[in-house]
Amino acid sequence: MTAAGSKLPDGLPGGHREGVPAGRYGRSRTADEAADRKLRIVGSVLGVLLLGVVGWFGYDYINGTKLSAEVIKFDVVSAESVEAHLEVRKDAGAKGYCTLRAQAESGAEVGRADFRFDQRTDRIDKVVTLRTTEKATSVELLGCHAD
Considering the entire predicted model, what is its pTM? Predict the structure, then answer.
């Protein structure tokens, strides 16, 4: 209690001043700092989502590939045929085919064929013969597809 005639300090009853004591709770955020913090949070969330999407597509691509191959070498046997040595990797139970294309020196396609691989092994080395309409100078694997 105060003595009669004494005066309370300016501010709230009981001598309390408005607001919080200086330095007690840290400095207050400005509007720019609050906006920056929100942008950082939104950017982090979007970054995590993007990483998840990329990871999902990567997993699906790797897991979805049941048949793949590569041309080890090829030999031009004659003007009408080319032999290509293929190495095929697949799931043991997978069946499918690979498409090869032969090209002439001019770049024109002179032969194309699909070769089936239904064996119950996971790795196949096979020499296949590709018929051509004229002498081929290159053989290209266009792709493999599982059934």
Answer: 0.56
Distance between CA 55 and CA 76 in Å, rounded? Answer: 43
Q: How many residues does the chain have?
A: 147
- What are 85-140's pLDDT values in tens digits? 999 998 878 888 999 999 999 999 999 999 998 888 889 999 999 999 999 999 99
Residues near 99 by beta carbon (within 8 Å), at least 6 away in sequence: 112, 113, 114, 115, 141, 142, 143, 144, 145
Buried b (16+ CB within 10 A) or exposed e, 36-55: eeeeeeeeeeeeeeeeeeee
The rounded distance, in Å, linking the Cα atoms of 107 and 118 is 32
- The one-letter amino acid code at 141 reads L
Residue partners of 69: CB distance under 8 A and separation at least 6: 86, 87, 88, 89, 98, 141, 144
Per DSSP bridges, beta strands 109-117 and 123-131 are unpaired
Tell me the C-alpha distance between 52 and 46, whole Å: 10
d(CA 78, CA 5): 123
Burial 60-73 (b: 16+ CB within 10 A, else e): eeeeeebbebebee
